[in-house]
Amino acid sequence: EDSQDSFHEYERDALLALKKGFNNSFLDGNWSGIQCYINSTTNWFGIQCIDGQVTGVSLENMGLIGKIEPDALVNLAELSVLSFKNNSISGNLMDFSYDSKLKKVDLSANRFDGEISSSLLGLNSLESLQLQDNNLVGSILGFNQSRLREFNVSYNNLSGKIPETGILQSFSHSSFVGNQDLCGAPTPTACSSSLNDSSNPSNSDKKNHTFSATLVMVNVIVLVVLLIFFIIYYKYKKLKKQMKRRNSVEVVEEKREVITNNSMENSVPRGEEDKGKLMFLDKKGTHFELDDLLKASAEGLGNGNFGNCYKVMLETGPAVVVKRLTDLKPLSSDEFVKYVHAIADKKHPNLFPPLAYYYSKDEKLLLYKYASNGNLYNRIHGGRGTPNRVLFRWSTRLSIARALEYLHLAIRSQTIAPHGNLKSSNVLLDENDEVLVSDYGLISLIALPIATQRMVSYKSPEYQGYKRVSKKSDVWSYGCLLLELLTGRIPTQSAPQEANGADLCSWVNRAVREEWTAEIFDVEIAAQRSANHGMLRLMQIAMKCCEKSPEKRPDMAEVLREVEDIKVIVDSEDEDLSLDQSL
Length: 583
Ligand SMILES: Nc1ncnc2c1ncn2[C@@H]1O[C@H](COP(=O)(O)OP(=O)(O)OP(=O)(O)O)[C@@H](O)[C@H]1O
Hints:
It is a single chain. The chain contains 18 helices and 20 strands. Residues 1-6, 197-210, 242-274 and 577-583 have low confidence and may be disordered. It is an alpha/beta fold. The chain has helices at 9-22, 25-30, 166-169, 206-245, 250-265, 290-295, 333-345, 376-381, 394-403, 406-412, 448-454, 461-466, 471-487, 504-513, 523-526, 532-545, 556-565, 573-582, and strands at 47-50, 53-58, 65-67, 81-83, 88-91, 104-106, 111-112, 128-130, 137-138, 150-152, 157-161, 181-183, 279-280, 297-304, 307-313, 320-324, 356-359, 364-369, 427-429, 435-437. Adenosine-5'-triphosphate (ATP) is lined by residues 301-302, 304-306, 309, 321, 323, 368, 370-371, 375, 421, 425-426, 428, 438-439. The site of adenosine-5'-triphosphate has 18 residues, from β14 and β16. InterPro entries: Kinase-like_dom_sf, Leu-rich_rpt, LRR_dom_sf, PRK1-6/SRF4-like, Prot_kinase_dom, Protein_kinase_ATP_BS. The chain crosses the membrane at residues 211-236. ATP binds at residue 323.
């Protein structure tokens, strides 16, 4: 099996990214070469391996300072023990959603801040969680994993009532001590009536009862007033919408209504900063309010795998695209904001970062500029056989193949999370036909089971084989994209629901084996004879990228060098003529 003779490059990348964040001279010197050998030995300090894969990371008492990226553990899927005990690591806790085998997590005696990550709740094998002596804030989540035997969150800044789950209640007070604002059993501090629930009657005097009764009454009155307010507001909005509907297509309006209604539900504010507000990621450029967005007319662009997409025509500025995210993994607002900032911070001319975001309990939106020349999928396949078909010449196809620098960038930088969903509908073209890769980074927002059903990387041979995706899965997707550009056929991974896709990698391999290679090129470019050599060259590169075994695929840097070397042939008029005749 592939995993047996490989050294798991993506696991090494994850560890090297971790090391970079610490800037520790000992680790810098010690962590080099191969991290895990198949016979389970390793020369890397603090690393444990089984069958060539990382199962433990224990870096205790090393004076480590710095931060750990939220997606640092995404590619360490066999991890069972994680300890950074007694260092000076700061920042938020990382995301554990992809580490379902974790049994022991010890982050005690550090400077972690932010909230306890909700991804810890999904670790069903968890036996020990040590988070004591940090600066964690927020409330304790409802841990109730049956194997949890050790749990310590003492000496943080946690607040609120300790959830009444059987497991949490089985620990003693010492697991929670040293958090000034924690209350409820097992601590001896009773919660104030606003935090306590009604099933927890206090045995104090009647005064308390009278106070509670008054409070309930006040609450009821406030609720009734709020309800009346919402009804009036809803009717007002409905009236406004009815007036507007006369001017726009009905279907589109229906979709917009969902946005509007949800935003009303969201008027229950969450945090200080983001209550019902659009948060812009770039301080420059046009800023507008959520209300401007809802007032504007909108048009559905399609139902993506992660929610619906709308083009919104703002009255005061250029059109924007709103992506309503659904099926996200449980994320606190802090975690969501952190991920979105991490996505927006990656700067590259071919990357398409979000403009703004909106977060509330029930609604998460990402806003993008509108890419006016559409997507690569439509450019390759749209309007074929009709007078509306816009010719898509070899030179443009080649320049698009070259522009997918994003992948190269991901290799050079410490971005360890792969794109995961590279396909032609996620490659957008701006008004100058510049290539913009969108949807990168979404892998960190999506729950693993959803990602495995829907994202392109999870259709790669390595995922089918041994359940891993990595940057080499992006190389595979890139190969499939090249084949789509060369053959003009729809591959399985880019095919929208209504279209049937083919397994282009197998199809092209067969064509080469059976020597009918000449027939596989898109007729629209095959006629450009002087470019045939370049096409063949690109085909060979694509086939290397599509190798079944990730380790046999070339590095993206190497691929791009080879694509760069293909000579650009300027389309001559003669060829245009033969091209037109061939269609
Ligand atoms: N900023 C944008 N400008 C122009 N078109 C866009 C923009 N963002 C998305 N689109 C187009 O809108 C449609 C829906 O996009 P969306 O990303 O939701 O789904 P998808 O790309 O089909 O699938 P997936 O969810 O797997 O990425 C696609 O055709 C996409 O190319």
